[in-house]
Predict the structure.
Amino acid sequence: METLSPKTPENKSWIWKKAFTLALCGTLAFWSVSCGHKTEKDVMEQQKKVETLSFQISHYINARKWFVEKYNTLLKYPKTEANKAQIYESLSQLYDIIAEYDEKIADLAEDKLDAEVDLNDYIAEAGSRVLPGNPIDPNKWDFLLAIQ
């Protein structure tokens, strides 16, 4: 029994050291990934996101114009007792679609503004990583030429 007692604390201490080391390595790995500097690749991916949102906004705006045109045409259509209910029902459906598109366009516009702010932050952060004593890349800002 006496020979086992000195070994037990040493084994527990080894386990705690190993657990602490693993936890520290995991924290450092997560920190380097989550808090790492933005690169040119990050800037390009964010630019793609902005372009995708711009495309979606233009698509919804063009589709909304078509529905508004149909709504306005139907609004001017002569109403009789026979077709009045159908016209008002169609107007109601078109109005609901237009309102839905308005909401979707507003949401996408907000997302695009957020993405543009992120893009500007990414550009600023990508350009701020110059360490003294290292060679300076002459093509450092070339990735911005592809954005414009």
Summary: The two ends are 77 Å apart (CA to CA).
